[in-house]
C-alpha cells in the first residue's frame, strides 16, 4: 500500500532503487550510556540487546571476503560492544574506511580511557553527536551534564590529532519538530563558538533531520504535533535529494545479522527479504543492485529540505 513518501515519488515521476554498495553499516546493539530524547534507536543503559561472538565473526568474515569501501559502526554506543575493536581491526585490514558513530561521553566512561588512542592508531573517522553548541540545549536533549562531558571528549580527540590530520565530524539535530538550518551556516557558527570558547577544532558539521520514530515520535504524539511534523516534512519534499539518499549505497545490518536498507528501517523492522528474511551471509554486494528500497512515512525526513543522511545534508 503506498505511503506518503511513495506518493511524493510518484508525484515527481521518481523511483527509488539500490545502486552499488559502498557502505556496510553495522548496528552492534541498543545499549548506550545515554538515553537521548531524539534517539531513533531507543538506546539506553538498560537495553541489553547486543551482538554475540558467532554473529560478529560471521559479519567479520563477510567484510574480509567482500571488502566494502566503508564500514560504519553504530549502536547504541558502539564502543560498549566487546566486538567494536574487532570490527575496526577487521575492516581496516580489508582496506575499508572505518567510521565510529561516537556520542563523545563514552570516552569518559570506565574501561574506555584509551579509546581516542585506539581510534587514532587505526585512523578511524569519528562522527560525533553534539546537537548544539549551547550547554542548555544539549543537556535538554541528551541529559544533565552531557555537554561538559562532550567537550571533555572532544578535547581528548583533539589531543590525539582529530580535527587536524584525523577526521572528526559533528552531528547537529534540531531541538524539536523542525528542519535543520543551512548546514554551511551552522558549521561556521559551531566552529567559531567551539574554537573561541573551548579551543576545539573539527572538520565538518553534518545536519540530520529528526526521524519521526521511537522516542521522538512519542514526544510528537504526546504534544499533539505528529500531524504537523509529517506535514512539514511532506511539504518540504525535495526531489533533488532522491539520487543521493544513503539507502541507495548503504546496507544496514542488525546485531543478529539481519538486513535493512538503512538504520531507520532497522528500527521499524522493515527487513530485506527474498521470499524469506535475509541475513548478511545470505547475499553478496551484486545481489543488491537495482533492488527496490523499502519505504514508509519516515523516509520523508531524509528527503525534506536540503535532505538528510548519515553524512549530513544532501542537496
What tags apply to this protein structure?
single chain; eight-stranded mixed beta sheet; 11 helices
Task: Find the CATH superfamily.
Answer: Aldolase class I
Number-wise, the strands total 8
CATH architecture: Alpha-Beta Barrel
Mean pLDDT: 91
- Report the helical percentage: 25-40%
Task: Identify the quaternary structure here.
Answer: single chain
Which fold name corresponds to the CATH topology? TIM Barrel
Number of helices: 11
Shape verdict: globular
Low-confidence stretches: none
Please report which band the strand proportion falls in: under 5%, 5-15%, 15-25%, 25-35%, 35-45% or over 45%: 5-15%
Order of helices and strands: HEHEHEHEHHEHEHHEEHH
Q: How far apart are the termini?
A: 28 Å
What class would the helix/strand composition place it in? Answer: alpha/beta
- Round the Cα radius of gyration to an integer and report it: 19 Å
Number of domains: 1
Give a quick account of the main beta sheet: strands, pairing sense, barrel closure.
Answer: 8 strands, mixed
Biggest sheet strand line-up: 6-5-4-3-2-1-7-8
Q: Mind telling me the CATH class?
A: Alpha Beta
Helix-strand layout with pairing:
Elements lengths: L3 H8 L11 E5 L25 H14 L3 E5 L9 H10 L3 E6 L12 H7 L3 E5 L5 H8 L3 H14 L8 E5 L10 H16 L5 E4 L6 H9 L3 H10 L14 E4 L5 E2 L2 H5 L17 H4 L27
Parallel strand pairs: 1-2, 1-7, 2-3, 3-4, 4-5, 5-6
Antiparallel strand pairs: 7-8
Amino acid at each position: 500500500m503506498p505511503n506518503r513518501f511513495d506518493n511524493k515519488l510518484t508525484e515527481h515521476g521518481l523511483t527509488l532503487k539500490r545502486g552499488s554498495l559502498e557502505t556496510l553499516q553495522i548496528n552492534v546493539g541498543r545499549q548506550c550510556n545515554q538515553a537521548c530524547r531524539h534517539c531513533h534507536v531507543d538506546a539506553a543503559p538498560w537495553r541489553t540487546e547486543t551482538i554475540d561472538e558467532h554473529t560478529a565473526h560471521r559479519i567479520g568474515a563477510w567484510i574480509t571476503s567482500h571488502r566494502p569501501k566503508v564500514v560504519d559502526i553504530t549502536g547504541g554506543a558502539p564502543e560498549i560492544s566487546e566486538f567494536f575493536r574487532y570490527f575496526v581491526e577487521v575492516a581496516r585490514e580489508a582496506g575499508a574506511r572505518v567510521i565510529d558513530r561516537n556520542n563523545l561521553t563514552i570516552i569518559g566512561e570506565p574501561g574506555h580511557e584509551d579509546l581516542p588512542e585506539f581510534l587514532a592508531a587505526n585512523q578511524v573517522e569519528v562522527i560525533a553527536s553534539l546537537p548544539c553548541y549551547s550547554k542548555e540545549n544539549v543537556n535538554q536533549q541528551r541529559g544533565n551534564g552531557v555537554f561538559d562531558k562532550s567537550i571533555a571528549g572532544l578535547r581528548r580527540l583533539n589531543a590525539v590529532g582529530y580535527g587536524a590530520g584525523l577526521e572528526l565530524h559533528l552531528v547537529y539535530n534540531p531541538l524539536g519538530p523542525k528542519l535543520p538550518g543551512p548546514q554551511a551556516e551552522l558549521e561556521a557558527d559551531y566552529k567559531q563558538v567551539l574554537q573561541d570558547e573551548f579551543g576545539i577544532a573539527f572538520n565538518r558539521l553534518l545536519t540530520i533531520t529528526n526521524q519521526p520514530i521511537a522516542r521522538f515520535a512519542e514526544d510528537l504524539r504526546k504534544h499533539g504535533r505528529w500531524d504537523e511534523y509529517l506535514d512539514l516534512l511532506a511539504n518540504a519534499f525535495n526531489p533533488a535529494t532522491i539520487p543521493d539518499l544513503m539507502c541507495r549505497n548503504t546496507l544496514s545490518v542488525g546485531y543478529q545479522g539481519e538486513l535493512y536498507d538503512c538504520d531507520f528501517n532497522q528500527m521499524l523492522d522493515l527487513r530485506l527479504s527474498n521470499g524469506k528474511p535475509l541475513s548478511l551471509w545470505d547475499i553478496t554486494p551484486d545481489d543488491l543492485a537495482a533492488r527496490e528500497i523499502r519505504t514508509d512515512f519516515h523516509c520523508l525526513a531524509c528527503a525534506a529540505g536540503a535532505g538528510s543522511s548519515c553524512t549530513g545534508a544532501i542537496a
